[in-house]
Amino acid sequence: MTLFVDSHIHLDGLSAPAAMLHDARQAGIGAWVVPGTTAEGWAALLAAVAACPGAYAAPGIHPLAAEAWRPEEHLTQLRALAAEPCVVAIGEVGLDRLVAVPWARQEEVFVAMIRLALDLDLPLLLHARQATGRLLELLRRERAERVGGIFHAFSGSRETADELINLGFALGIGGVVTFPQARRLPEVICQVPPEWLVLETDAPDLAPEPYRGQENRPAYLPLIARRVAALRGWSLAETARITTANVCRLLRIPQPGRQDGPFLKEE
User: Which CATH superfamily is domain 4-251 in?
Assistant: First the structure.
């Protein structure tokens, strides 16, 4: 019986993590990848992961936190964190036109994160808002295909999906795919090779229908999986098998173990 992997969730941001993770395990989720966003939050990130069997960490500096960048100090800290067995990627890193951090600083930090990932041979968890073109340029320039990773919260075009896949990045599919107005994303999901699709909640953000606008929960991942299954013509078990294998391949983590208790029922 294959369990799901949530490839992007902020465990350290949940209001009741222990109860929510219990519900998620009962719903068939067996592993979680938890990105970091700020240097100040890395300790809480590692603590949250340590408290959750099956969780992995991806510390990095988000564009929102780029203005506080202290290269020597932060790179030293990240190198030390990368030695921890639970650390499997550098993330959540990228570019964001919707934040007030100066663009030059965002690019400086993002390039540093790419180069660190390359040096450590760790994949990347990418973030981009209204900046995907430049993000792709920098990934190509720095030869980020040598490590690849996951593009978080993908909602772009087929052309963008193909460029990311060519660089070794899977598409992180979250709650947006369940929104009634979503048109382009479902089409892309139907068209791309299945080995480049992974699932994520981004909890506590981006809750799927019918919980949109509320706090997202780890147990909502099956709602996203069911939508992907319907689009691809897969069973729910097949969706778990494919997307879990993809995350494990890209992040080099073991398949999550079997669990006692109920599993997802086909609908």
Answer: Metal-dependent hydrolases (3.20.20.140)
